[in-house]
Amino acid sequence: MFRALTLILALTPVAAHAQTVPLELDFLPPQIAPRDVCVPAPANPQQNDLTVEGTEDELTDRERIRYLRRDIRNYTTEDANRFFDFISALIERRSDIDETFTELDAAFARIELMLRAGRMQAMSDDGIVVQLRERVGDMTNTQRLVLSRYYQDGIGVDPDPAYAQALLREAAFGGNADALLEIARLEQEGRLVEGWDAPLDLTVNMAFGGILGGLDRGVCRRAARIAQEYIRGDLVAANPANALAWFRFAADLGGADAAWRVVEFHLNADAAQKDNIELRTYLERAVRLGVAVDDTAGAALVSSGALSEAELSQILGFNHSQDDRRTRASITPLLQLVVNIDGMEADDDGPFLQYLREIAEMPEAPGRVFDRLAGEVLVRKGRWAGEAEAIALLEEAVRRGDGPGQRRLARMLVRYRDDPAAVVRAENLLTEAVARHGVSQAMRDLDSLYRCQVNDAPRLALADPWAAAYRASGHANVTVSATDLLALSLDRSPEAIGKIQSLALDRRIQMVASHAQRVQANPLTSSAALRFWASELNRSDQALEAFAELEFELATTPAQRDLAIEFFRRVYLNNGVTSALDLAIALVEYNGRDSEIADEIVQLLTMAGNRGEGAAIRLLSRLQRATRTEADVYAEFAEKIDTRGDFLALMFAIPHISDRKVDDYIDRAVSLMTCGTKDADELGDAYAIRGDGDLSYHWRTIGLHFEGGHVLSKLRLSNRQMKLFDDGGAPNAVDRAERQLASNDPGARYRLIQLTANPDLTTYDPDAAVEHLLIAITSPDDAQTALIAEQFRLAPQDVRDRVLERVDITVMLERAAAAGDPDAAYELGMILRGSATTQSDLATSLKWLEQSAGQGHRDAMFEAGFALGMGLGRASDTDGATAWLDQADAIGHPEASALADRCASRTRDE
Fold first, then answer.
1. 643 — pLDDT class (breaks 50, 70, 90)
2. pTM (2 decimals)?
């Protein structure tokens, strides 16, 4: 919970006032005729496999290096200390096969590993950073920059700021773009680098110029990096038009990824900005270049014949430019989606499987490698065809102490539940996974084992304690519908909101998607928060799919449903076949009566069915019931079900298999089942179909022992909602703000003023509002000055009078406005206008409004135009009023244009 609250406070809009102001800079690409600079050169048979990709199923050194880089990063992120020896071995392995990974690169990688593992004392004792200082002459400018940070922060060495700045300055003078950006960011924070006299805008220009570099094959990637700076808006002000210009530039030079980014820009754009002609132009270019997959991926997707432009265009289904309400905060445009279409059949081998087999032979390999290898075998060969090999690999994972591997092995052993030894082994594995490794899901597995899966289930005396322990662990997802998710209130469901946030920060897939929806639904969400949760969604294909499902469910108009389907298609392009079933389900609901969409649904379901997804097979059978019997559909997928079938696939097969196969298929299904009413009913139906009344009754009986039963489902109430009845009242908004104030939250005082000074809220308390305003005014926080003044101005007259009896708020505002705060100048102007008794007061008000307007404040432009048009503070000046109003209109003030027209018509009348 505390992790969630810390992050939320860090990302609130109030905190944004304390951040540095991004630089307004238009660094635009040069005008260059389109050419294929970034397109890879044709493969030369004489080259080694570091420069030539092999066949689709061949593991090359290039692929090895890519997997090694990813594993070093992922294992370091997960637990650098636990996997320290293995990561060290991976670094050594990379240095042996990657000619571009020098001895110095390996040394920096080891330092990073020690840093992430918290082995600071060992780093100092080894003197590894001091040794690097002796080799500065051999370093690249990028390495000098990293070493500079070590000496600046005292990492593995005594701090030496002077030497750190010398290294930074040397790297910057050498043209290193990262060093230039570092200097620019330091300068933004008011920390000047000695000996660097260039203005901030020149430094950033030089940095961007250094990033762009020459017209070689890397220029497209570097141009895309500049585009990302304009998307993030940290160093330079966010500017989607500039970002698009750089993506377009990279696409024109042969960047497939950039061409896809241009397509995505128009797919995400508001109706006014969407250009379907340019979208199709760059879609065609993306297809010709191989579509935006990964710059180190294998053969080009589309150019190899896997997909044509027409097919890709049909999948995207883009032509929904009628909606003009995409201006709300949205995570969708920030997602980095690519294209990754799978074939109709699953491959039984691949480079990643070969790579895992190789690193599993390393003596330092942890049990996690064998767990991953087992999972890959089950995906490639099929969960039943690959079962024997996977069990052997998981036994090794258990021997090497991997908790998730223990859990996976236990679940596989449940298939052999007729053997008491297998059941005891599964019990022991799951118990050890909980007690030794803290795998919370294993508690749920033990509950399921005793409640549903053993032959003499339900063993309630054993199941109930594990169910209670799992509930107490807080690991279970919050079960809530899409519409209820957005309606959760801190005043009514703080526990559910806190749990969603905490589980999302733990990267639980469904909760990441759910919290991301709540974040983008909040109109006050900061751009930093949107970017953070977009990055969390990008980490997981499953999270993207869950997010797309919520987008579809939350679409409440035909136009929004069109956009949701458009986005769902793009997630499918990104994820491949894993999202085929869910896209097919959405398309059936969306417009299954359309013949082209119907054909697409059949193709999607066939792809998913070939991976053993029973829901896809069953849905395909029901959709085609007019032309095909269920037996025909089973015959098409019988082999796939036997080698790969999931729970529902096995249930679908029950009516069509021989008696000698039934018990085996049931045992397989039980090992995969979710211990809930739905799966228990499926098993009961299966035995009823086979005419076995005793076992059908057995599963109906098990269904009676699930928590809460199913009677209340008729009332549309969940167990979570029922529990709230006994939980007592939640703290209200004022209680929460007061707790935050006690925790020294700088924005808490402002929130308290908001709550207590607004008579339209139930929390209105004029006495408390006066006290909070007085404290805020007499102990000003520069970041909150304008916000507090705004609340003062909006407060009832009685509150304002009581505050003014004891303190003059204009003193605080004049100080901030004189220091250059446009918000403070605006609020001062408005307060003076509201309390004006003479023309001189109005003139002073106008002076501050014009100062704020001159600094780019939109509302100040409007109010200055209003004052000049009405002659408030100065003789009526229609031209001056129109000038301010036109500027306000240009940056989006909703009323400026109408007021400018009234001023103009008034002038004509006179």
1. very high
2. 0.73
